[in-house]
Amino acid sequence: MSDQHTTPGATTAWITTATADGPMRVFVARPDRPADRAVIVLQEAFGVNDHVQDIARRYAARGFLALAPDLFHRNGVGTLAYEQHAEAMPLIGAIGPDAIVTDVEAVLAHLTEREDVPAARTAVNGFCFGGRAAFTAATGIGGLGAVVVFYGPGIAAGPHAVVDRAKNIDAPVLLHVGSQDPTIPADQVAAIEGALTAAGTDFESHVYKGAGHAFACDARPRLYAEDSARIAWRRTHAFLDKHLPQAA
């Protein structure tokens, strides 16, 4: 590893792993004790920025090996500021299902080969664009331990919609969305829930009254809804502890 740093409860570093589409940087947060479970944290539309890295560190502090791949590695953008929303849209629009599956498979291969953590002990947790990416990964990769989607637009509508592939998901799924999120209207939430129900998927879906998009992003005070975020994270931790229990 390179650029290694130690923060309370975690040691962090950037590594590079191979994908079918070239090398990809991955931010790694390693807990201060050996980990037999992992979380792949998938970025918002703005790259593996400080907030995404902080989420990885929080997971490490809870005993997970956390990895956040740079899904912008094909264009070399790195990160964007939150006010660069217009610039971010075409970048995430260019990342279709095949690319997402390729990148998540590369991280899973690294976990299996280098960390001795199998897919069955790995969760995928995505936010915003990463929420769509997490759901997409689950439709194309079998055997994941769990999937958590925070406000992922584009799952049920748009050029990269994958709701029709829900039947392929064999991992338990947890979904969080704000009732006031214009990017995921109620009919799309219903479509996702309907597809998962028809597929017999083990899932939970929670709609947070009054919350909008990115309601759990405490790096964006204007959008952050503290009460909803706290409940969503409590549910997330319980969900992961249920499906990926920590070794005794």
In CATH, what is the homologous superfamily?
A: Alpha/Beta hydrolase fold, catalytic domain
Shape: globular
Q: How would you spell out the order of helices and strands?
A: EEEEHEHHEHEEHEH
Architecture (CATH level 2) name: 3-Layer(aba) Sandwich
**CATH class (first level) name:** Alpha Beta
What is the makeup of the main sheet?
9 strands, mixed
Could you say what the CATH topology is called? Rossmann fold
Strand numbers in spatial order across the main sheet? 1-2-3-5-4-6-7-8-9
Unreliable stretches (pLDDT < 50, length at least 5) are: none
Helix content: 25-40%
Please give the number of β-strands: 9
Number of domains: 1
What is the gyration radius calculated from CA atoms?
Answer: 16 Å
Short description:
By secondary structure, the chain is of the alpha/beta class. Helices cover 33% and strands 24% of the residues. β4, α1 and β5 form a beta-alpha-beta unit.
Short key terms for the protein model shown above:
248 residues, alpha/beta, Rossmann fold, nine-stranded mixed beta sheet
Description:
A hairpin with a 2-residue loop joins strand 1 and strand 2. It is globular and about 45 Å long. The relative contact order is 0.12. The longest helix is centred in the middle third of the chain and has 18 residues. With 248 residues, it is of the alpha/beta class. Helix 3 crosses helix 4. Helices cover 33% and strands 24% of the residues. The chain has one domain: Alpha/Beta hydrolase fold, catalytic domain (Rossmann fold). Strands 1-2-3-5-4-6-7-8-9 form a 9-stranded mixed sheet, with helices on both faces.
